[in-house]
Every structure is written in C-alpha cells, then in structure tokens.
Fold:
Amino acid sequence: MAKLTKRSENYSQWYNELVVQADLAEQSAVRGCMVIKPYGYSIWEKMHDILDKMFKETGHTNAYFPLFIPKSFFSREADHVEGFAKECAVVTHYRLRTNADKTAVEVDPEAKLEEELIVRPTSETIIWNTYRNWVKSYRDLPILVNQWANVVRWEMRTRLFLRTAEFLWQEGHTAHATKEEAMEEADKMVHVYADFVENYLGVPVVIGRKTDSERFAGAEETFCIEALMQDGKALQAGTSHFLAQNFAKAFDVTFLNKENKPEYVWATSWGVSTRLMGALIMAHSDDNGLVLPPHLAPIQVVIVPIYKSDDQLNMISERVHELCAKLKAAGISYKYDDRDTQRPGFKFAEWEMKGVPVRLAIGPNDYENHTWEVARRDTLTKENVSDEGIIDHIKNLLEDIQKNIYKKAYDFRAANTYKVDTWDEFKRIIEEKPGFISAHWDGTAETEAKIKEETKATIRCIPLDAEEEEGVCVYSGKPSKRRVLFAKAY
Amino acid sequence: MAKLTKRSENYSQWYNELVVQADLAEQSAVRGCMVIKPYGYSIWEKMHDILDKMFKETGHTNAYFPLFIPKSFFSREADHVEGFAKECAVVTHYRLRTNADKTAVEVDPEAKLEEELIVRPTSETIIWNTYRNWVKSYRDLPILVNQWANVVRWEMRTRLFLRTAEFLWQEGHTAHATKEEAMEEADKMVHVYADFVENYLGVPVVIGRKTDSERFAGAEETFCIEALMQDGKALQAGTSHFLAQNFAKAFDVTFLNKENKPEYVWATSWGVSTRLMGALIMAHSDDNGLVLPPHLAPIQVVIVPIYKSDDQLNMISERVHELCAKLKAAGISYKYDDRDTQRPGFKFAEWEMKGVPVRLAIGPNDYENHTWEVARRDTLTKENVSDEGIIDHIKNLLEDIQKNIYKKAYDFRAANTYKVDTWDEFKRIIEEKPGFISAHWDGTAETEAKIKEETKATIRCIPLDAEEEEGVCVYSGKPSKRRVLFAKAY
Structure:
C-alpha cells in the first residue's frame, strides 16, 4: 500500500489519495459522477440509518417524488429561478435507436420531448406541485415528509464527496399551517443535524443563520451547521430553510383554516448529503489514512492473527471465534481478517488506512498468556490486555475514542478561531492562520462582498448563540450588534 | 371514503382506485413517473430492509454507481443493444439560462454535451466498466455487490407500481472466477427472492427459467419467479441472470487465475423493484381495499377508541396506553387512532382500505368488562377478547393471518392452474378461465411466437421442479420432455 502524501505537504492531494486508498470512492467514466465503493457506502449507510431514525423520532415519514422536473416548474418561484437551477442535466429525448449499420446506438431524433425535463437538483418545485392536492384543510397539516434520493448539479470543478455532479442526500419538505410552526421546524431540524454531526461524526459545529446573500434561493431564513476542517477551511455540513409561503404561492397551495378561510401554507426544507463523508474524512484523518469515530465505523474492531504454522492459526482462530461471539453479543461490529494471501504488516497498514478504531492482534505468545494486543487508531498506541474483561475494555475504549476524536477536533477549532477587531489583523490572519474569524460586520451585502473579494473569506454564519455586544464592523467601521463567523470555505 | 369499483366489475379500475385510495401512490406531473406516498413508501421500506438483510446474510455489500451512462457504453454488448436500452431518457444539455425577458428558464444551447448521457435503465454497462479496474487477480474475486437505485425506462403505457417510467429497485451485480460459481450465485438469488416473496409478501411463486426469447438481453440464462394475480394473469416478480462472460468481454474485464493466466470474469445480475408493490396489492386485496400480510405491514395493529365524552376517552386512552407499551415490548407495530376529527365508522373504513391486519376497538362496555373487540382484515371477522392474554392472542393472530393469506393465494393458484394437452383446450381455457396453463411445448421460438400471437399467452417459465415426462407439444405435436407454464401476463 502506497504512503499518502502528507497533509502538511499538500492537503488537497492527501484528501484525494485517501479517498481512493481507503476504498471509499472513485471517479467514474461519467464526468463529475463518483462511484461510492462498498466500504465508503457502508459508512454512508450508517449515516442514513442513524439520521433516518432521528427523523422518524421527530415525527417524519419518508416518501418518494419523481427524478424529473418539468422545465417550466423552475420558472414559477422567481428567487428560485434566479439563484438556483442553472447547472442542471437536461433530458430532451426519450428513445435511442440502432444506427444504420447496426454497430451502435444513436439518439432517435423523432423522440423529442415537448417540454424538456430537468434531473432534480433539489425537489421543492415538484414536491410543492404535489402538495397542492394533498392539502385542503388545516386537518391535513402538518405534512412532515422526507425523501432519500440522488440529485444532480452540473458542477464544473468536482471533488469526490465534497462536490460531485450527482450526489446522494435526504431532503425534508414540510408544510405547516402557521409561520411559527414552520420556523420551529426549521430550527428543530438544524439542531437534529448538529446533534448527529457532533455525536456520531464526532465533529463540533457552529449552528447559525446565513446572511441574505448566502441564503438558499427561495428561502427567507437559512439555518446551517458549519464545521472546521484540519486545513482551517470551513465546511457547511447541513442546512435547514424556512421558506415562508414562497413555494405555496408559486404552486398555489392553500388550506382552509379553522375559520374556513383560505390561507397559503408555510414551508421548510432541510438536507444533508454525501458531502458529510468529506467532512468526516477531513476532520479526523491523519497521514496514515482514515480515522473513523466508533459510532459510525462499519467495522469497529478488526482482529489479525499472527502465526507461522497452520496449527498455530487453528489454535488462535478458536480463541478468536470465542471473542467474536462475545463481540456480537455486545453489539460490537468486527471483522476477523484471516486472509492467507496477506501478511500481518500489510493487514495492519490496510486497516489503519481504512480507519478501523480498534485493532486486536494475537500471536502464539498472546495465546499462551491469554492476552490481546490492542491498538487504537486515533492515537496509534498499543497495549496488552488480558482476555478476561476484554469485552468491557473494548466497549470503554470505543467510547473513549469517540470522545477523544471529538475533543481533538474541538480543541483544534478552539485553537483556530480568532477574535479579530481590525481589518489589518483580519487580512493577516486569513492569510497566515486559516480558521474561523469571529468579527463584527455592519450587516450589509456590500461589505460582505468586499471582504470576500479582498480575502476570499465568506460569512459562514451568524451564530445562534452569538452574544449581543456593541462593536464596529471590522471592514467599514460602522456599528454592529454581534460578531459573525468568517472563513474560507469548501 | 368512496367505495372501490368491485374486482368482478372491472379489475383494472379496482386496482387503480385502490392504489390511490389506500394512499400508496399517485401520478405525478411528469408523464409515467409516480409519487410514492408515505404509506406506500413505508411498505416499500419494509421490503427494502428485509431484502437488504437477506442480501447481507448471503455475503453481499451495497455500493453506488452513477445515474448516467455514456451512450457509447450501450453499443458494447451486442445483445444488450438489440434487446434493450431503446426507450431511455437522454440527457443532451447541462445548463439552463434565464430567458431574455427574465420570466422563465430555457435550455442553454451553448451547453450541449459532447456525448449524450443515458439515465440508467439498468447498470450492467457502467458497473462492468468499473469492475475492470477492481479485478486484477483471482484474489479480487468474487465481487458480491448490490445497488439500491432509481432507474428509468420510457414506457408508453404506464400503471402505478406495475409499469412506470421511473421506478425504484435493487440490482445485484456479481463477478466470479468460474462459470459454476456464477451459475450457483444466479440460482441462489432467485431462491432468495422466492423465499422473500412467499414468506413476507405471502405470495406463492413458481421458480423457473425463461425461454431464449424471454431472456434478459445479454444473459445466457434468466431465472425468474412468477406469481398469479387474482384476475388470473401472471406477474414476474423478480429475475436473476447468469450473464456468462458477455459483459466481461464487452468491457475487457479479465483476471489472472491461480496459474497466472488471464481469463474473462463470469457475471450475474439480479433485481426486484417497486413492481413487487403491485404484486402485493393484486394478490391479496379485496373490494374493501388493501389486505397486507402482517410480516410486511408497517402498522400491524390499529386501535380505535369509541366514546361519547372526554371523560370516556381519557379512561379508554389510559387502557390503550397500557396496551401500547406491551405491544411495543412484543415488537408489534401499532397505531392509536385517537383523532377527534373523525368518527369510528370512518376510521374503520380507512384502516380497512389501508389493509391493517388487526383492528382493536374499545368502548365503555369493553372498558368495564376488560375486553377488546378484535377484527381481522383478511376474513373481516370480529371477536371479543379478554384483556388478559391479549398480547399472545394478537401475536398468534398475526401469524395466523400471515399463513391464511398465503394459503388463500396458494389455493387460488392451485384452482387456476390447468394441465392442458390439446390445442383446443388451451385456447378455450386461456379465453374462459385465465390462470396458469401447464402444457408441453416443442422448445422452438417459432411455436412460442405463434402461441403468443393466437392467444396472447406467453411462456412464463420452465419450472425448475418440472418433472421429466414424455409428451407432445400442445401446438405443433412435436415431442417434448417437460411441461412449461403459460399465462397472460402483466
């Protein structure tokens, strides 16, 4: 297994190599579309299952809406048209035919669609067109629906997981009778995301609101969670939008309220995607490969036998099988890597690359002494542990690793978040010490744009927990009530 | 809630009405694409979860491949080109733009793709193009991968679940070192499907092989499961293909065997889709609506309170909550329908329409007597059951319903399968008594085509368990070694 480029040498190359070498994903024959490999997909499946449970516990159900959206739908919601939906895959024909000499297929020019179909970049339009028929009275509300789906945005510069033409995601689309209820929902879901990313991915996030210019096209408020990667760049890990009555008006979705008067329905939408895989990788991994938090690792424990003869292997395997039965009973996922085609050193490196949190090794001496060599992926440290009580040891170790990974990321973020009060300092820090900058801003789009132009830093969010304090904008010197969070971002 | 058209009056209309009234799915604004509504999707989710577990228990893992396939890929495998991949959605452009007066979006003519992309109708081509890089040596085999995905086939006549332009499915794609191993895999998976459909959907199936003319384009052997619907038409519920080395040759996928010599890889593919929802509905449901087998029902038990005052409701609800705790502990899914916007009679009809296997009702008298009124959906019978032992009663009842539903479908199939030995009888039966016809066939495509032309019946399969017997073809009079299964089909 080839060594990875070091993070300190070339962070971006390190990331690209890691994604491939850890067997997570690869480029496909289709520009910008990735293949998610079995190991990478098994991590996404864990994310899916945990999030799905959280959505259901908060009252949501899943449904499925069409992949295609009629082109005209994108003209309905004016902001949505302007701000979104430009880089899209467009379906114009519905049939292939065999060519004249029967050697290949070609597009049948006779089979042209009357109206082009757009492969969904997001589904507000088709879903709100559907909700029109679902909602008649206040009794039909709220609608709390989520969809797991693939979406396509024709990105020009793509990177595995972080920015791909096709990606997998979930999109919640809810409908409410009142503004308050919709706002509460949008707020609730950004907190569900924060809970998930912090407690499962082990990545601390800042919960905040987007500025007007960074909001989703069609939203009146966009909540987001922002995480800091090891290279000091921010990554938006999830968003939750309060859409007011914009889509209800565009698609004429009204309900009769308790007083029997028609009103437009209030909406939210919220989503996270396979981009979370990118956040997971970039927040924790090291120069040896992936580092997985135990709460998301498809394999929490890998066991490698060390032997010289078949007899030794049989002896050791028996002990391992006993352990596996106990691991299974304890709900710990494991893999016994008894491949005879690879040597232990190769296996160690491979599972290190794949980020398995705990590695057990057992050789003839360990067998004799009733011990295991226990290595943890996060700190790369090893210890010998008695077979007696090994399950409790592993259980505690997994929780310890989960906490440690989070703490490390938390401390990193703390060390790389700067309170800045002058423009010179702002420019210096954004240049020399990438990270979050907490600074006052005058609230105007002009200032925001100028700061972006001069430094490439954007306002990641206005943190929900930002304290009110009197200050002056770091750029314009105009008065400001609270600090916002700046960073260069993915 | 409107009454359904009776099955005896118009089976096809009954089906269409049921799908909508039971809240399973509806037509969308996009021709041929359906919206799967939350209740319908929750049944599909159960199918997904159970199948996924069965795939994993047989050694498979999930992965994800691109939605789009370059047009040229379809020209690679000659049979695949001829027999498939004609009615496809074709992506030709990748950008929209705002029109001149800024009122709408239009396709940007500048953004034309060099090579058109096809929305996958099935993924053999893109996956085998990917496998080329995954396989170097026999050590890399087998690859046992499955994908859950949406696919698009531009059907002209569509029906909800049975035939839609976009549908959801899983497609397994495996790669093997030997022909025997690949054949074993294809055989194993059709048996997994049969197990699933019989034990969860409660639908008996015939496992068989397809004739040459009914085989999947690119396959050398197609196994299938065939089920009989209540109108006497057959429905193909799943297929498993032995693809030989056809796709390996088309995409140049070779491996070095143990003797270090290059060989082409052997392949299988297998799939089931949301079409299973159609099979589920048509096999069991009645003129009152859906009938769900307990093993697939998202809600196994619904509880309806009957009361005149709030005091009564409170009293009853307390008893119901006690029951719910016990149901939960027993792993039985339930819903307490305490909506105050609908009367009990409405609720009874609604849950009947939605096919919930067991309905409990409780009124003041039941409360006094510590009893429940227990109604079963399959037989529409009711009984009073003491609160003591109610959980065991429900558990047994659910299993009993599952068995009864299967038995009913099994008996129906037995009563509608005819051994036929003359052409006159064949024509009479296919006309008057739709169902399966078990008859001798001479094994030629010509005879098969003529029978189809004259009667619309096709050979559904050559059953795997067909006994060898000497006979003569029902059409041509030529000798035949075994009977095959004919029917009109969905």
Q: What stands out?
A: Residues 390-415 of chain A form the longest helix (26 residues). The mean pLDDT of chain A is 96. Chain A is about 35% helix and 25% strand. The domain at 301-397 of chain A is CATH 3.40.50.800 (Rossmann fold).
